[in-house]
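Sanity check record (used in CI):
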Amino acid sequence: MPEPTSRQPYKISFLTGAAIVVANMVGTGVFTSLGFQVLGIQSGFALLMLWAVGGLIALCGALCYGELAAAMPRSGGEYHYLSQIYHPALGFLSGWVSATVGFAAPTALAAMALGRYAAGVWPAVPPQLLSIGVVLALTVVHGMSSRVGSRLQVVVTAVKVGVLVLFIGAGLLSATPQSIAFLPQAPDWQQLLSPSFAVSLIYVSYAYSGWNAAVYLTGEVAEPQRNLPRILLAGTAVVLLLYVGLNFVFLYGTPVAALSGQLEVGYVAASHIFGPAVGRLMGAVIAVLLVSTISSMVFAGPRIIQVMGEDLPALRGLAVVSKNGVPVRALLLQTSLTLFFILTSTFEQVLLYAGFILSLFTFLTVLGLFVLRQRRPDLPRPYRAWGYPLTPLVFLGLSGWTLIFILRDKPTESLYGLATLAVGAVVYFVGRQLARR
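Expected output for Amino acid permease:
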C-alpha cells in the first residue's frame, strides 16, 4: 500500500525558493543604509548608481551560483562548493562563517532594526526584548516543520513586496520634489570612482546579500538543476527593481539632511512624504516586514550547519533532524548565536563585520567557477552562466574593489572577520584530530 502523500518529503517549489531569496535580500539593508551613504555622497545620480551597481554585482553572482548549483546539486551553499572545488578545509571555513556570521549576524541585524522601528512607533516597547521575542517565536515556528515554515515564508514575502510597490507608487504621486538632481553632471561621474562610493558600496552589498540564499536549501528544492538558476535570477531581479525604486522615492521626497546619519530611513522618508501619522504607520509596517527577513534566515541557516554535521564526525550531533525533517539542534545553535549578537554588539559593528567576511567567501566561490571549469570540464552542467567569462569577471572586479576598501578604511571590523576565520581553522583541525583518534 503506498505511503500517504502527507508523509512524502516536502520539496520547496520555485515560488517558495524565489520568496526565500527576496525575503533574505529585502530587509535590513534597504531600510537602514541610505542614511550612512548620504554622509559621503550628495549626488542623487551617484546614490542611485550605488544601488544599480550593487544589483549588477548580485545578478552576476546569481548567474555564477546558478551554474554551480546545477552542477553540484546539494544543500550547503559555499560550504559544499568550496569543499569540492578547493579543499575541505576552505569549505569548512565557509560553513563556519555561514553558521556563525552568515545567518546569525544578519538575523540579529534584522531583529535589531525591527526593534528600532517598533520603538519609533510604540515607545513603551523595549527594542531589545522585542528583537529577542521575535527571534524565539520564529525559531519555534520553523522548528515545527519545513512545510509550515515555507507557507509562512510565501505569505509574508508576498505582503512585503506588495507594500513596497504600494509605497513606491504612492510616494511618486504624493512627494514634494527635493532639490537633489538625478541626471548626471560631470562631477557625478568622478564620484563613482571615489573612496566614498566604494565604502558606501559596502552597505549596498550587504543590502543585496541573500541573493544566494536558495543554494543553501538545494537538497530540499524540487528539480534543483532546473529550478535553482531560475529562483536565483528571478529573486535578484525583483529586488533590484524594488531597491532602485524605493531609494529614488526616499531621495525624491525627503531632504538629504533629514536622512543623513539616520538608521530608520523608511520611517523618516514616510513622515516627510505623507505626514507624521502615516510615517508612524509605515514604521510599524516596516517592523512587521522585517519579520519576513528574520523568518527566511531562521529557515535557511541551520541547513548549512546540518550538512557540516553530516560530513564531519566532530559535529555529527548537529546533523540530527526531527521526524519532520527539521535540523532542530542546528536551529537552536543558530538562534543562540543570533541572541549573542543582539545582546553584545551595536548595529553598525555587526553590519561591517558581517559584510566583509561574507563578501570574501562569495568572491572565492565565484572565482571557483573558473577553477571548476578547468579541473572538471566534463562535469554535467544543465545550466551554464550566461555571459561567461564576463559576468564572473564583473563580479570579481567589483567585489574585490569593495573588499580592498573595507580592509583599508574599516580595519577593526576586518580583523574581527579574520579572527573568526582563525578560530574556525582551529576548530577544523582539532575536529580532524579527534576524528582520527
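The chain has one domain: 10-428. If this sentence no longer matches the regenerated C-alpha cells, the check is flagged for review.
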